[in-house]
Amino acid sequence: MFHWKNGTAALLSAALAGGTAAFVMATPLFAQEAVKLELWSRQDPSGPLRAGNVVKAAERLNKELEAEGSPKRVEVVVRESPAKGFDDDALQLLKVFGIGEGPDMFIAAHEWICAFQEDGFALKLDDYIAKYPQHFGTIFPSLWSSAKCPDGTYAIPQDAEARMFFYNKKLLREAGYDDAFIDSMPERTLSGDLTMDELLEIAKQVVEKTNAQYGVLHRPNKGPDYIMAFNAYGNDFVDPETGNLLLERDKLAAAFGWFERGVKAGVIPANNTAMEFDALRKEFYTGNAAFWMYGIWDLGSVAFPTYGLPQEEKAFFEDWGWIAGPAAEKGGSPVSLTHPIVYVIAANTKEPELAVRLLGHASAADLNTDHAVTTTHLGIKPEQLEDPRYAEAWPLARATDLLKITKFLPNNAQFGELNGIIYAGIQGVESGRLSAQEAADFVIDEASASLEDVIVK
Amino acid sequence: MATIADELAIERRGHAASAARRRTNFVIFLGPAIVLTILFFVLPVIIDIAVSFTDLGRSLRITEFTTEQYQKVFRTDRRLTQVIGLTFIYVFGTLAIFNVTFGLILAITTTAIQNVSGSFFRGVWLLPRMSPSVLYILLWLWAVSPTEAGLVNQVLMRAFGLDTPLDLLTTAPIALIIISNGFIGASMGMIIFTAAIRGIPEHLFHAAAVDGAGTFAKIRFITLPALRWPISFVTIYQTLSLLVSFEYILLLTKGGPFYDTTVYALYVYRRAFESGQYGYGAALALFLIVIGIVVALIGWRFFDMERLLQRPRIEVH
């Protein structure tokens, strides 16, 4: 039997043994490899969980990695950009990638992804999507089309929403329309019975017969909503055969004509594009305008919290409502527009697999619903519709109807720029500098001069 | 006793030392300025020229060297004619109404009254120049807001009984950018003209008074001739400054409505940084540099600036 000769030796041996044991036990910790994945996200109060859910997803992914016995652990570093909108943000990010300082993942408006794909900055995701059906298998198929470039899928849909014309029922009543007419407007619009010009006529009645100053208001900067009006007049902006941008002079002139008639009728203010965003919202939500062309998320983000519109469904629909973009002519097709925001992975990320799995977890139904219900965005998976929280958020459930007729902006690398030209055309028409026909010519001239491969008909 | 040869040697050493000192002084005093000029003026122009011959786009990549940008400038950009015309109106209007004329009026009136009051009014006119651009323009946006809350509309509607609020941003955007820029630009002329008026010998005014000259005669026959050089300087300097400045316009009207207030410098900015066409922006910017040089040379010649910069001659009274 082994005996310790003295206490000191025993103590030393115990310390040595203890130290070795602690070292051996701690070895797995030392062997853990921290993988930092950088996420570029615009500071956007309308969707803080777009980035927040990715941070949360890291915890889930790390548990999964631990269960697999992998030494890797993911840490998400969010890099926030102060850009005003998604267009500015995309331009800034393209420069960042251009100088080799791009992040591993980024959040973008879907129409920009092909600009990144064209320059080789975005990772092609088709194989990964097929490999992880547990994450991506149930995402609405229609949303995937917003994530595609000509040669494959380059993004993961993060949310969707619906664009519409909100309207103030009190003003319509004051203008002499009865409840039956007012309440039938959404249905009549969906069936193609209510037209864009009738909408102007209703707005005109409101301006003439009530104290309201404005008939129809729209956003005062470049963005997606007014494209809905162009869609109503048949402008799809992309040639289905080649994928190139397509400009059709007559259809453009027809859409500009609607804005022109709106201003001439005193319904759309000539200075709409010079007004401030918040001022426009205030005019509508405080009862000084009949219609407001915008997105469903404005209810949760602005109308309820800032202007105190009733949050309860029945109370809301007593005085407020919305319709899709009406058809151009009787019996035509109504329009709505959804503008998905997407997650994109950088082509040169060192850990593409981990980035895909991370965004897969961020796309989990419960996390996506957190984002959807707190910011009034539409979810990306059918199972979210079963979530009681989603069902409680009635604007989402009601706006989902519009997805049947919804369209996307073209996923063309040059569309952002074309949209700027179209917006300038609207400014020209509304401020009286251009006629509708001149605006169509202006868009075609500018686009032909500054963009490539534009098809003009 | 030193020989002639020794004296010559000493003199030569003296010349050599003085030449060496001159060279050292040149390097010490002008060296930093030359380096800075090359770094911040010459080099950017060279880079601009180089970029203008590329297809540098929004992802900062060059795939080819091309003259395409210049073809765009000369052949396809129909917007340019309007932009150049507007720039002329903006520069000429701001200069003529505010930077020179109003600056002159401010200088003459504030030097004609008591010194304390004069200094106070000049201080007030310097305030916009000292306040941050964004704050200054925010005040303008409030002043010209097309609602009843706007300052101008409050005055017009309450004091003059106007029925509906005016929308100056849409109906008079050019006037607004000229006025908002002019309020700032006038202060520089005011300071320079004030200094020049103070430099006019007092006895000239007394002599004129003895000869029966009134206020306007004194201004016309004494003050204005004495201000010829400052006026020339302010005109040339402010022309060049106005040609390249656009920040107040961007903040106030964003260049709109439509392209109504898009001056050349703002147009370059929009093409390069809002559309991501950096190569094209560089080509346009090069023309701005050329226009600036041409304007400076014309001004130099027209105002005979060479004489201004000559060594002053001794005045004989």
UniProtKB/TrEMBL annotation, chain B:
Pfam families xrefs: BPD_transp_1
Subcellular location: Cell membrane
GO BP term (any one): transmembrane transport
Annotated Gene3D superfamilies: MetI-like (1.10.3720.10)
Membrane topology value: Multi-pass membrane protein
InterPro entries: ABC_transporter_permease, MetI-like, MetI-like_sf
Domain of life: Bacteria
One Gene Ontology cellular component: plasma membrane
Transmembrane segments: 26-47, 88-113, 172-197, 229-251, 278-303
PROSITE patterns xrefs: ABC_TM1
SUPFAM superfamilies referenced in this protein's UniProt entry, alphabetically: MetI-like
UniProt keyword annotations, A-Z: Cell membrane, Membrane, Transmembrane, Transmembrane helix, Transport
Family to which the UniProt record says this protein belongs: Belongs to the binding-protein-dependent transport system permease family.
Name listed for the protein in its UniProt record: ABC transporter permease
